């Protein structure tokens, strides 16, 4: 029984660590401004890691210099701002060369004479005993280093070190996002200052006329602004939204307004490709690499080289392929199936999904590290019901588009028809509206649409994302899923008054036995 209690205690600690990591990662993922980042560091992160001071140095590797990006002490941050440090100095370089966090004891004299950065000297003078350094490598050409300062000696804590390593990527991405936003803001300022107000207005009008995104609501204007901000960079974009909201249109707009616009944008629907063909579809294969490979095939990554790869329905990608995709995103290289040659690619990734990736991660269906790689610049598209003021413009656009095909030029909606369209709930969003207008044009007798042909309840159910996600499962699978959800709801507790066994109204020994039979292991709810 002691062994079980010990195991349960360890599981609870890992579950607690898991939720802490998820919470902090989500907070950093929302940071696009320096002040937001500082608030997360000085409040949430400091409470969790109990450090005294935190600093981050970041650089462009080509310059061989780094600067202080952040220091939790505002005075040191101000005094050290803009000072260049050598990337080969003892601490910065040591962190980049190490795969694990490095502990520096300030009490022990250094083994050799070293050049200590000013901000480290200033922080050490505040009574620091130890410093922990670790790399924040998100882009190979833009390495950063995290410095944590402690007044008390930190005994080697495996949990702390594991948490630090896990947090290094979301922190690195947050830093990268802020630097990208700063660069884009500077570009915008330069562009505005170099043009008169008249030219700026006319350019914006031209851009608005050329866009495929229809609507003037506040929500849609925000989407257009985000597209304008991110298009000129090479940063990855994660587009979130319900089915039919126009995620592919947004992806196309980003590509069309980027420096890669003259290169191809290759589209891949991850949900539409059979599992056994996904790897070949993305990375290609050599002739004879497997049964049926009668010729060499070029994969989507190779086709999109120097352009953009749009990964639609990324939430449906199998876990095994998520691992392989992550490696390509990190290394920017891959091998075709059956090939020995490493192929390097320069591809911008835009991903989209209608799934809640936070839930997918929590339930073990989506890798956290891949999420952090993709979630550099998230854009959430609102459902049509949240910006119904755009419906008249959308209707006008679709009427013009489909009236030509139906040879019914000049067809219009009656006031009653438009009113019924606006009052509709639109569970299928803009895609449903588009099909509704097309169908109503075909069914109209004259040049005025008086009655709108909405989808029937059964058609709505068939076209909904919930129905498309429905899968037949065995009772064993359903029981396993249900027990896992209850255990996670109870924060990993099996027994006790707040444990899963009490919620399920069965003895804890019975629950443990069921877990063993169903193959439920600690890592299923403790990672």
Proportion of beta-strand residues? 5-15%
Q: Given the C-alpha coordinates, what overall shape results?
A: globular
Average pLDDT rating = 82
Give the strand tally. 17
Strand order of the largest sheet: 3-2-1-6-5-4
The secondary-structure class comes to: alpha/beta
For the report, how would you describe the main beta sheet?
6 strands, antiparallel
Explain the overall architecture.
The chain contains 23 helices and 17 strands. It is an alpha/beta fold and 527 residues long. It has a 6-stranded antiparallel sheet, with helices on both faces. A 5-stranded parallel sheet has the order 8-11-14-7-15. The chain has a two-stranded antiparallel ribbon with strand order 9-10. A hairpin with a 7-residue loop joins strand 5 (130-136) and strand 6 (144-150). Helix 3 packs antiparallel against helix 5 (118-124). The chain starts with a helix and ends with a helix. 30% of the residues are buried. The model is unreliable at 196-209 and 460-470 (pLDDT under 50).
